[in-house]
Amino acid sequence: MNYYIRIDPLTLYGRSKVTDSVRENVKKLLVSIIGNIDSTECRQDIKKCGKFLNEVADGIVDEINKEWEAYYFNSVFETKTVKDEELGFVNTPADTRFPGFVNSLADHMLTTSAFAVAAALSYYDNKCGELKAYDIDFSDRELLRGFVRVAALLHDIGKPPPVGHAQRTKEIVYALFKDINEKLASALSEASSRHHYGYKYTNKPQNFIEWIISYADKASASSRTFLPRNKEVFERFLDFAEKLQELYDIGGKDYINEIKNKVVESEEDSEELKTYGFLSDDENKAISLAEKLINAENDLCGGKKLLALYHFEIPSIKSYLNRGRELSIYAGYSIMIDSLIHDASDYIKSNIAKEAVISDEGGSLLAIVPSTFDSKELIKNLDLSPFDAYKENKMEFMFAEAHLGPKENWENWGSTDPYLRDSLRGFGTLINKFLSSSGTIGIPPDVSLQNEREIPLDKLCKKCRINFAEDGDECESCKKAEKFYRTFVSMVKGKGGDPLLSEKIKRLRIYKLVEELNKRNEGKISIRVWDTIDDLNKDFSGKEVDLKKRRFPTIIVGDGDNFGQLKSTATTLTQYLEINRFFTYMIYYSILYALENTALNFYKHFKVPVVEFQPILLGGDDFSLILTSQELIPFLYYMDKALVNLGGRVCRNSQLEYKDAAEMISKKKPYQWFGISVGAYIYKNTTFPIFLAREIAEDLEHISKNVSKAVFQNQFFGSGVISTIMDEKSIGLLERVKNNKGICVLGNDMREIYETIVRFENAGISSRKIFDYIKLEGDKIRIFYDVARNNSDSLETVMETINNTITKGYDIQGYLVLLGTLMSSLEQKNFEGQEYYKVPWNGQMVIQSESL
């Protein structure tokens, strides 16, 4: 029996192996997907198969996305709610050989289809040639769109292994569709299997559809992948591949050694290597091997480019959030913008393909579109009236540029190290070029008219203080934002809401987060969102409470470390998609894990576990939410644990020995830091404007990022939370401690911080006293003397804490500021007769960092 494994590109970790039997599992899944779709019209007339085929393609894409969700959920929660053998698309490598095994078959299917359908629709719109193949007339756009999508998605369904997969693909695809429409089945089986055009292949593409899929397959290039900018990382990856060859056939030892010699000794590249000429001393080798791909546009459409990247966003999102002095406006604008981006995404998905969307989280849309794509219809379908402007960008590119990067980067590298050269000749560089271009700004018509009028003071919106308000109270934009927020709150409380807005909100991850918390815990957790921040001054029945029972709002802003850099190193769209998805799910599931565990394992001051929060933004690179300060310590601890579960964390400068290859595969081996820098600002005055609290939190997040680069990234590879926390009192001390490890800590340190607070509380040391110690500027002798004079019973506790602080390399003053900040919002809190600091951790283990 043959075994195959997909290695995660960021952690070099193999979660689950597959065998040849995975093909049968995938086939059964496809039979189920196809069987659930109405094929009546398609059975009667092949010209009416367009709707059916597009629904089949949508079903395959949906299944792949469901498998990815299960994969990342299992990784973060360390469980198997869906068995690994049921994740056939995701766990199967796109190429069983090195280095293509870092890509999943799932993403190679998606990206090949994304390129193919965009090119096919451009071919159609440009009237590039005859729209006939397999004796089928493809003059119906939907038929062509659906046919190309299904054929491209299934083009490698005969894998694993690579050898003989084209014939197996042909047989599988025919069997899937023969009972629906035999002519369609025959055509799809040819289109999906005839996608290789190298000189060794006899069954080469015969028509425009097959050539488009072939070029799309080469542009997606499952074997041409994983060239991290750091050459030493690739050399370590080669060592890993040598050991992996002991258990899995990834090309053979001689094949691995040829690549290793090329990287280490710069020998001539072998044409037998599955790297398409990359790493050769001859900078033109990869170009000459891609000659057919370079001429794809000439062959298909007289030289016209058929592919394009498209980007859409609302610029200056922060300027809209800054209108939010109140929670309903602040969160409402964020929800409204997120919903708008998903409206744009849905347009692309329904008119081009679901797989064409690369990303639609974080306030912007990125997609592969036909070069003929005209966004006017998309813009017409969007409600842009609440916004001052929108920004869009489109850039056409060649098939070969998806494979080799921008054309202007192909030549004139001279004596540059081949590894550096080829790590920069890839899709990541192409997308960097695109995203760094200026784009165009559009102004909605209603806004143009409003900008021309002078607004009287009595007609200025009282919410945002910017727009015209007809009633002198609230502008239309703020009304819409507030309606989005009210609907969201009503949905969370189980009361429904505006039907149209409810459907829009259900698509968003901020709502899915709540939905998944409820679904997983079946009512065991009480999820509370607020009508206003003032709700924190009340108990859960709505009655005002005394100070001891009040919870304090904490706004948290987080941003990924090195996310952009890692995405820019992707050599193919397939790898870009995998890395981008890794970070998107890393943020989402780590927050879900943290919220759930905070409620279940820690925050037990009420009759049922409670979590109070308001998600603001859950992007692909960043997030923002509001918690209570009483939840902050466990939340950061558990979020850090979730990130380590997914991405690992290893000491940078040490070596971990493995007893065998199997153990090596089962351990995460991150080679760069990709954690999250967090700023958290606690404010006790609930009337304080939320947008100002966010600005402070952003400043603290920048502190975390600076310390991350200067300190933590020199210590660790992998993931985790690095946080800086302050409140309205301690913020005045920021300049003293902002560059130090101490005010800025790993999430794993939060348990020890909590336990230190417990010891200080029990020793009678208050937050006020902590701030007195801070005035002694980190001089431990003066601190010990002060304690001995004024509170001798606590001397041992203080000495132990200060000495431990020094041992861990923390700045004393910064650490005391952090302790004082957290204690001031926690001490003497009393809920249902149980003091906060006496709540147990229920045996939760401290996260350990492994050595590498």
Q: Count of helices?
A: 35
Oligomer: single chain
Q: What's the main sheet like?
A: 7 strands, mixed
- In the residues, how many domains can be counted? 3
Poorly predicted segments: 264-273, 843-852
The level 1 CATH classification of the largest domain is: Alpha Beta
Question: Which descriptor suits the 3D outline?
Answer: globular
CATH homologous superfamily (4th level) name of the largest domain: Reverse transcriptase/Diguanylate cyclase domain
Q: Got a strand count? A: 21
Coiled coil: 256-299
InterPro entries: HD/PDEase_dom, HD_domain, Rev_trsase/Diguanyl_cyclase
Domain HD/PDEase: 101-231
Protein name: CRISPR-associated protein, Csm1
Annotation keywords:
852 residues; alpha+beta; five-stranded antiparallel beta sheet; 21 strands; 11% strand; globular; disordered C terminus; Rev_trsase/Diguanyl_cyclase; HD_domain; HD/PDEase_dom; coiled coil; CRISPR-associated protein, Csm1
Write a structural description.
This protein has 852 residues and is of the alpha+beta class. It folds into three domains: 3-220, no CATH class; 302-459; 529-846, Reverse transcriptase/Diguanylate cyclase domain (Alpha-Beta Plaits, 2-Layer Sandwich), CATH 3.30.70.270. 48% of the residues lie in helices and 11% in strands. It is built from 35 helices and 21 strands. The strands form six sheets. It has a seven-stranded mixed β-sheet. Strands 6-7-5-8-9 form a five-stranded antiparallel β-sheet, with helices on both faces. A three-stranded mixed β-sheet has the order 16-14-21, with no helix packed on it. Strand 19 and strand 20 form a beta hairpin. The longest helix has 29 residues, at 573-601. The chain is globular. The two termini are 33 Å apart. The relative contact order is 0.08.
